[in-house]
Amino acid sequence: MWFDSKSWFYFFVSLILLQHNFISFPNFLPFLKMDQISALLQPYKETIGNVAGIVTALQMLSGAFLCNDIRKKGSATEFSSIPFLGGLILTVLSFKYAAILNDAAMLRVNFFGLVLNIIYMTVYYFYTPGHNKTTVWAQIGLSGAFSAVVIGYAQYEDPDLVEFRFGMIMTVFLFALVSSPFLSLGDVIRNQSTEGLPFPMILSGTVVSFMWLLYGLCLNNSVIVWQNVVLVILSGIQLSLFVIYPSTPKSTKDKSKSKTKKTN
Predict the structure, then answer these.
(1) Backbone angles phi, psi at 193, to 5 degrees
(2) CA-CA-CA-CA torsion sign (169, 170, 171, 177)
(3) End-to-end Cα distance, the chain
(4) pLDDT greater than 50 at residue 15
(5) CB burial string 67-76: b at 16+ within 10 A, e below
(6) CA 137 – CA 33 distance, rounded (Å)
(7) CA distance 43 to 199
(8) Phi, psi (degrees; rounded to nearest 5) at 83
């Protein structure tokens, strides 16, 4: 008997629930539907929401390390504005989506993220050399225009359709942002090294996505669930690279070995 991807997902979630005695074996035989999983997780909804909010807030604080690197350099010339602009757009859209859902946990964490990303963007602009500030302003303007158009669309969309459609727009943008490390996949394979890939951010992103996956199940919200299923898969693929390849290129290791031999 063949099953589609959704059936397999429910199957594996059911296995986990069965292992922890949340369901009995007879009840496991017909695969659980999302509303059944949601009902099982309802007693833990507040706890899961709080944990998801905390780990997300901690992940958002990682931008402070990047800002500190810029401060040490004394200039933002060597740093891309994409992480800051992407984070700003994402938190604006996520805050709007939380307002559509009227979900307190999501509103809190995304308001916190919005404030942080405004601070990060301000720091980036402050350390941008004078001749590049016009370019940064233009990027900020385009980001603001994009956000305004999407939020404006949400205001005029059919209330019965806006939750799903706005969620899908946000999901596409989120996937593009999270998938950006794959742009360096060719370099990773060519150099047989994960040097340059942000392991802490990828690992924390995996944890965050998993927690919001659970919270999406609590809300019985298919957009949040499938959004984070894909994010967990993407993060898992990126993490597998750290298992396959070392963090230091072979050429670097060979050079260090040769220096050691010469010293001896």
Answers:
(1) -155, 145
(2) positive
(3) 65
(4) no
(5) beebeeeeeb
(6) 48
(7) 34
(8) -60, -40
